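sorry to bug you again but im stuck and you know this stuff better than me. below you get a single protein, a line of residues and a line of whole numbers that encode the local backbone shape. mainly i need to know what kind of three dimensional shape the backbone takes. anything you notice is useful, everything is just below:

***
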Amino acid sequence: MKRILLSAGLAAFLTACGGGGGRQESPSADSNPFFTEYTTPFGVPPFDKIKVEHYKPAFLQGMEEQNKEIEAILNQKEEPTFENTIVALDRSGKLLRKVGSVFYGLNSANTNEEMQALSKELSPLLSKHSDDISLNPELFKRVKAVYESRSSLNLDAEQAKLLEETYKDFERGGANLPEDKQAQLRELNNEISMLQLTFGQNMLKETNSFKLVIEKEEDLAGLPDDLIATAAETAKSQGLDGKWVFTLHNPSVMPFLQYADNRDLRRQIFEGYINRGNNNNEYDNKDIVRKLVTARLEKARLMGYKDYAAFALENRMAKNEENVYKLLDEIWAPALSKAKEELADIQQQIKKEGNGFEAEGWDWRYYAEKAKQAKYNVDENEVRPYLQLDSVRQGAFYSAYRLFGIHFKQLDNLPLPHPEAQAFECTDKDGSSLGVLYMDFFPRASKRGGAWCGTYRPQSYENGKKITPVVTIVCNFTPPAPGQPALLTVDEAHTLFHEFGHALHNFFKDVHYSGVSGVPRDFVELPSQLMEHWAFAPEVLKVYAKHYQTGKDIPLDIVEKIEKSGTYGQGFATVEYLAASYLDMDYHVLTSVPSDLDVISFEANTLGKRGLLKQIPPRYRSTYFNHTMGGGYTAGYYSYIWAEVLEADAFEAFKETGDIFNQEVATKYRNYILRPGGIKDAMDMYRDFRGKDPDTTPLLRNRGLK
């Protein structure tokens, strides 16, 4: 429902939207950047002029303006038509989208206490605003009238899809519920919105509050020099000169677990990592999880569904929970078997070093790295000098040029969302602009963890003119050591290509209505995961993988080692991912939630019955599983593996030609997958591109599970 009421741009980061109230003037209202057209190059947000005090007046004004637009639709004397009702509704809320895209983008990438407090203040207002629209009986009456006359309207495919999605979204928004149940739905939407917001804020604070302080140089044994240098800089910034500080941000904690010889210190940081939100303090998320799962189930039951998963999956590719579990189960058995083989290697490595202890979670990455080196004679630190960040970025740009003929040019005259960000213009093969790309690579306390791609302005049409998108890629890569360039890990290089795939989807999308710009959650990862195949393709490596000091190409023997060792560790990686996917689904197929639900016990039971190895925690445990508890991937974390089936099969289309840059295949991919948005059913789009249904065999083969 939120997608079409406030458009895809705002719905991408708003779980529930609300409103009410008139414009509240502030001392800076006359100079509020949101109240005028941007005069910046490419019309990007004037980040340098936007202040926290500008957001609330703009949100309130945006809600007021959309309310007036809805009133105008209702007050028409003409009978409901596609243009005066469906299109008018789709076009409403322009200011709200404008301010929301900036606020919620920066609240993830560069937040502060003021913004977090404001997001809590706005949450109930936006939830009410959205419900006021979706539960407006007169508005639904007009929408329904157009929908019921659809066979006589002579609509094109995009218009027909917009009408269908608009009507469905009203239904899923509760328009057919009786008045008393609509009141309950409002309360639940508000509660869910606030709980999700609190969960995410707690997680950020828990991540930032932990630090492992090392005072003795001998405790750094095994760690790469650049990681040690970064830890020294972190300590210095915190007034701990002469010491080393390691944090729970991935570029710090993961290499520490992979290389630190000190087992007890590995245990300390591992336990800090897996217990975020589970420390019985003011940021504890256990009760938040229980309340969220309960509220979501109540909402689903209110809407006539047996559980929340049934409600969430109805409009996704998977369609139902049975199909999700079928896919997860198909991959789980071979993945668990492979993980047990890897555990045996780890245990053998422990024995080889003269130790008799049983491997624990804090041992896995450390001894898996040793086992990998022993099997394949490959050390990731041998690869990193060839993965200089700017070069990897250029490798992604080169791949896009070879595939689609597009170019990226760095821009130096744009306002930036953060001083560390970079800006680029993307131009098509005919020289026309496709939009602006921001890239923001390194972790900071004001940025949430992980990596993502979003938009500060989505692609759209206005008065027949195409409005190009302003896209942002945000990551948390290993920051450079003092005086050195940033060198990426293999995983970080894959991540850059992954998020770049999302960016390409945004640049190539070409739809006329916001209500059809989005794709199902379990389809959206197809473009990103497909792009990862080019990251370490030999044809691409020879272009960008140059030693940062000597400029020499990455040696062929290292490329061969990367290829041969590529599937090693996939047992662990697949099992930890599937475990989180099962956990997400198991919470949301509950048909009753005990008032005293112990989420830690639930987690242990649901994963224990599937035989999860004790050394492998799920990729995200309940109390820091922001994908599902923070919204966005609720009953949808399986989407990555679902989309991987698609992208692994899709890459076969390139491989079958003998040319991973085959222009005919790339053009079909752009036209059938990237351009249409959500105009067609997702599986139909895939069949249009591939000419057949997807096959799971390439996925299993790529992961070394077959």
